[in-house]
Amino acid sequence: MTSKASLLLVEDSDSLAAIYEAYLVNESVTVERVSTGEAAIRQLMKTPPMVMLLDLKLPDMSGMDVLQWMSTQHLNTLVIIITAHGSVDVAVDSMRLGVFDFLEKPFDAGRLQVTVKNALRMNNLQSLVDDYQADVERTSYHGFIGSSLPMQQVYKMIDAVAPSKATVFITGESGTGKEVCAEAIHKQGPRVGKPFIALNCGAIPKDLMESEIFGHVKGAFTGANTDRKGAAAQADSGTLFLDEIGEMDLDLQTKLLRFVQTGRYQKVGGSKEEKVDVRFLCATNRDPWKEVQEGRFREDLYYRLFVVPIHLPPLRDRGRDMLSIASSLLRHYSKEEGKQFKRFSAATAAVLASYDWPGNVRELQNVIRNICVLHDGDEVIANQLPAPLNKQMPDESFELELTENDSEVHEKSAPEHFEAVEMSVVETEEVVPLQPLWITEKQAIERAIEHCGGNIPKAAELLEVSPSTIYRKKQSWEEQELSS
């Protein structure tokens, strides 16, 4: 007999607590209920549950206080916030503290049940990720290039989810590699060697989308001169990846929901029902829940597809990865265009490192290709950079610092090259006089954060620590300053 998962309900209203417990009576969870924040913290210290339903308004403290305490304890409990309409903004802010999802009152049994099931699935996958021990950090992975901490987490999540048939919803800004992620899941899983069919829902006219997915029979519409297989049939026994799924028409979303639920569909103009075995992956560069709230995406389809979310970090949050990718692209496009480029100058690396890359890896590809098409030489110099990077040239003093070590820098590989640029910035800072160690550490971290434009993940990469270490240090400093 399978043991039930533990769920802690933190709700001060007896009547609401009874309703929520009734909603979950047939689910695979054991519900324990407390009515105050203090009781919740005691229970979390004693036996952390897999999932916690947390009301934000409690008689003794705010639910946010409980979340703040949990963030210092590094618990594996997944939190689902229960909130009234007026505190939705607070609930969204709580996502930054690691909240899994939030439920806006009033909600029905189905919404609660689906959200709890998704949290339990995520808990199981996260356990697999935590148990996975990589002896050496990977610098590349199924088409990805990069060894940054955010990408190591993506690689581990793909490792964990690939063997499953669970639907994966990939999110991230345009150009972050969502199709690369989908292919990695396919290649890492048991369906490798079977078809991988990718369909960009944003690039196909709406009146042709149904035919592209399900196919059509001869005579179904003007121009349908023969029967045609759709992506669903082509992906049979393999993987179907629906990119930019938020662009899909609402009427077609209804048909897609049934297809995802049953694996059955009908061709356009056909009367025969067909069945396939497909693993579904989908992606969007939008906020999928916001699309649901604004009526552009069906809520029931969202809950059917949003089983395991994987978020791809933007290039600006990936630290040294940027220059590793740029160097790989430089080698590739130089060979393709018959050019001699082997490296970036130190000043060029500085410009590349300081740019925000709003178009992410796709924009970086375009920049490097532009350089290789229009220029040639042993190294890429800063005045060969196209707009808008040519407007972000380093000032003379910064470039002079780099030039003093130019011969040493040019002999380095791309990742070390980037490190040399970073170190030249650090070395120009004033030497800190003798003082308590925590103050010296505080000043060094604050300089790194300032150098990275306030971006703590970037500063963590520069200092070779995890972002959570910096957050803990900041909290410790506040306590030190209060006690002094």
From TrEMBL:
Q: Which GO terms describe its biological process?
A: phosphorelay signal transduction system; regulation of DNA-templated transcription
| Entry-linked Gene3D superfamilies | 1.10.8.60, 3.40.50.2300, Homeodomain-like, P-loop containing nucleotide triphosphate hydrolases
Annotated organism of origin: Echinimonas agarilytica
Question: By its UniProt entry, which PROSITE patterns does this protein fall under?
Answer: RESPONSE_REGULATORY, SIGMA54_INTERACT_3, SIGMA54_INTERACT_4
Which stretches make up the Response regulatory domain? 6-120
Give the signal sequence positions.
none
Protein name from the UniProt record: Sigma-54 dependent transcriptional regulator
| Domain of life, source organism | Bacteria
InterPro entries attached to this UniProt entry = AAA+_ATPase, AAA_lid_NorR, CheY-like_superfamily, Homeodomain-like_sf, HTH_Fis, P-loop_NTPase, Sig_transdc_resp-reg_receiver, Sigma_54_int
Which keywords accompany this UniProt record? ATP-binding, DNA-binding, Nucleotide-binding, Phosphoprotein, Transcription, Transcription regulation, Two-component regulatory system
Recorded GO molecular functions are: ATP binding; sequence-specific DNA binding
Q: Which residues carry this modification: 4-aspartylphosphate?
A: D55
Q: Where is the Sigma-54 factor interaction domain?
A: 144-373
Give the Pfam families listed for this entry.
AAA_lid_14, HTH_8, Response_reg, Sigma54_activat
